Amino acid sequence: MMMHAGERRVMSLDEGWGSMQNGIMKLRAILDKEENAEPFTSEEYMNLYTAIYNMCTQKPPYDYSQELYDRYEAAFNQYIHSKVLPTLVEKKGEYMLKSLVTRWENHKIMVRWLSRFFNYLDRYFVQRHHIPTLKDVGVGCFRRLVYDEVKPSMRAAVLELIEKERDGEKVDRALIKNVIAIFVEMGLGTMSAYETDFEKDLLSHTAAFYGRKATQWIAEDSCPAYLIKAEECIVSELERVQTYLHQNTESKLISQVETNLLAQFETELLEKENSGCAALLIDDKTEDLSRMFRLFSSVPKGLQPIADIFKEHIQKEGMALVTSADQAAATMKEKREEKPTSSSTSIEQSFTRSTIELYDKYNGYVKTCFGDSSQFNRALKEAFEFFLNKGVDGNSTAQLLADFSDKLLRKGGSEKLSDEKMEETLDKVVKLLGYISDKDLFGEFYRKKLSRRLLQDSSASQDYERSILSKLKTQCGTQFTSRMEGMVTDLQLARETQDAFERWVDEEPETRKTAIELNVTILTHGFWPQYKLIELALPEELIQCVEVFKEFYDKRMSQRKLSWVYSLGQVVMTVKYNSKSIEMVMQTFQCAILLLFRTETEVTVASVCEKLKMPAEDAKRALHSLSCGKYKILIKSPEGKTIAPEDVFTFNDKFTDRSRRIKIPMPPVDEKKATVEHVETDRRHAIDAAIVRVMKTRKSLAYSQLLIEVVSQLQQKFSPEMKMIKQRIEEMINREYLERDRENQSVFKYVA
């Protein structure tokens, strides 16, 4: 072969590959840790790189790039067949895994070094021909010749180690992690090898393992003990993922554990005798309940059975309170001959307080044990709605709650609470009201009791009154509290009116000053409960008071008309006895009767009615309070606790009392029936209005849909009965607001 000066000598394939073969053998010796194997010197590295470079850059036909690319792969194949596979095939289990990890690490080193020697191929030849890189070729050789050969035994050995660890044995976690890394790396950038060759079997083995454990534990352990073990298993599996498994496996692995330990045995666990969910609630095992919630919150639909048991448990405890209150009321009736209203005086206190305690307890469970979950909040709500709408001793819970609130807010009430505790209790009262369907009934009872507190100046605090009204407005809406707020406002305006009246009197005291001191409270008709208006024949002193105030008010408010509610009036009268004078606080009716004795020596029910124009019932009540109550201001003949038409009453001029000032109460009136009837009337009007609103908008509507829409509009105030809605629809048809469709009788049309 002729060479010109300056030309590079052509290197034959055999010559070049011979030097490369020597380099490969040296690299193998280094990897196999043979004696006297020394690392490459810089000169050796450069010579090998240069040899490859020269053989790849020679002009054709001496460009050996393709031949070198093929021999690069052949070198790996030869090394694997001669050195790697024989050492792996002869080992089993953990020893095989250790050898495999070592061989894979060596293989990667070999790929890295040879890729450097053959770097020129990667940079040009591989790029131009769009063929696998040298690294991919090297890894591909290992995958094809080693991994595909040993992966069944490799997988089995790893799964065996994991099962040993699950059974409590110590294993080489670093080894498992390195083997897992091989599964991942064999995917050549994807997770396919890991998922197909290892993860799939790992998940099935996990399911089988925990299926066996669950069968054993469910037979041996209590529910709390089982859940502790289940939680420990989940924690262990999470740690296993963090330590040596791939992160992608976490959700799949935990799902298998939860399915086999929890989901498949949930019913058996929750219903375990003496240790299931109901037993944990009875025994207040909050820690165990919290664990139960944590574990089953990850199980699809796992919380609903627990929430159902929670709801049923609260319903039982709530109904026990109702039954206990009914029994207590029955016992009180047997022991004391009193009216139902008076016998329930302490019933509503104990029942409502017990209900608040029950709410505090299980609302605390929802917050602390059940993560404030919407499912458990709903279960709590439905449970309280269930028993709070049952009623106690013939009384609606709405009435009991109103009575409880009245005692809470009244001066000298049985509940002695700090400001903070009072606010908390008011919050609870309003919360319980949210569970009661008869909110309108509560509103009417509460309004009547509020009126008494305001008019008798018996509220413990105006701040408390405003506070509960604010809470009620938030819970039930502005319309619910508008009249109550108007009542409070009336009292504030009344003080201003009284001040103005006194100033007006002082302007001309000779003609305007009354014989007795007068204080008038103006009530707006629409805000206050409906009171019976009686044209009482007042004594002269009181007539003068009425006329003077009427003159003042007519000048001030000419467009308004005053109606006097004498039954709400209060009088402070000083009665002079021989022994001493006593101030008596009484109602206007009582005062009018006593003043009759200035001219009369004795009276009867009939004479009182005739002279004062007073209804017989009111006369009897007033006479009863003066003769049969604590203070015997009048003497009744014959004696007795009831008032008869023929009874005669005389003034008791020998009456005395240790106190200088006494209050003579009127017998209480049972307003329950009248209040309920008033609410029923309001409900009929509300249903009528709702029907008209719906039909005005829809024009034509089927009966079933009309029922749904009417209930939807009214359910915040009360739950209307279907029977009542049907009656009101028929009434609306009779009044020609609605008509039936001629073709379909179950469809109604609005008559414009």
From TrEMBL:
SMART domains: CULLIN, Cullin_Nedd8
Protein keywords: Isopeptide bond, Ubl conjugation
GO molecular function, one term: ubiquitin protein ligase binding
Superkingdom of origin: Eukaryota
An example Gene Ontology biological process: ubiquitin-dependent protein catabolic process
Annotated region (Disordered), positions in chain: 329-348
Domain Cullin family profile: 396-627
Gene3D superfamilies noted in UniProt: Cullin Repeats, Cullin, Chain C, Domain 2, Winged helix-like DNA-binding domain superfamily/Winged helix DNA-binding domain
Matches recorded under InterPro entries: Cullin, Cullin-like_AB, Cullin_homology, Cullin_homology_sf, Cullin_N, Cullin_neddylation_domain, Cullin_repeat-like_dom_sf, WH-like_DNA-bd_sf
Family recorded in the similarity comment: Belongs to the cullin family.
Name of this chain's protein: Cullin family profile domain-containing protein
Protein source organism: Ostreococcus mediterraneus
Phylogenetic placement of the source organism: Eukaryota, Viridiplantae, Chlorophyta, Mamiellophyceae, Mamiellales
